[in-house]
Automatic annotation (TrEMBL):
Alphabetized UniProt keyword annotations: Methyltransferase, Transferase
GO biological process: methylation
Organism of provenance: Paragemmobacter amnigenus
Keyword Translocase in record: no
Protein's name according to its UniProt entry: Class I SAM-dependent methyltransferase
Amino acid sequence: MHLDVLDLRNFYYRTQLGRVAQRAIRDRVVAMWPVQAGQTVAGFGFAVPLLRPYLAESRRVIGLMPGPQGVMPWPAGMENVSVLCEETLWPVPTGMVDRLVMLHGLETSEHPSAVLEEAHRVLGPGGRALFIVPNRSGLWSRRDITPFGFGRPYSMSQLETQLKRHGFTPERTSAALFAPPSQARFWLRTADFWEGFGRRFGPWLAGGVLMVEASKQVYAPTRGGLGAVVRRPLKVLEGVGKGAPEPAMNRS
């Protein structure tokens, strides 16, 4: 079940813990996807906190927010780019998106397969999608004081398997939110240190969210019928159609 957009807004923009989480995840997104001019960048779920670095240079930025969650105008003080949509029917032409970010859109959906099908549809050739989900082994998925404590958390293998089933090829993996989900001043002040430490020693320190960058599988068309040419015929057919050899006793 999707969280309410007001709860998500209040967490990311009105709490210190939410701002720490926003900065940690956004820094990883920008590190994986440096800003490039002329691209169409979309986010589904509540991904708008991660899209701000792309507003200036991108050809188009779209914040897709599912109906069960609700929508809010974004960004503040600028022309609105957020759109309320059905979670399984996005108002985006097929193959239009160059970069797609999904945050709080997969783990909270009651129709994850249909969501992934829409993500596959809107992604263009050569495009990339970044799926960000709660880590089932992390601390953040075990505390309901943050949005990451709701929905279905994933392991890395579970997320990659689900993506492969829907036509995506995982390319890179990462993680974020290595500091505990605590509002204590010590953890908030040292959050940047824990992010750097976690990226260096990830296998020993579970991040609160998993991130998988995936590309869209595009299959080459196959040719059948008369277009299929057999380059090496079976040898068992050799000699078919030739005259039978004449017995030696009949030769003059």
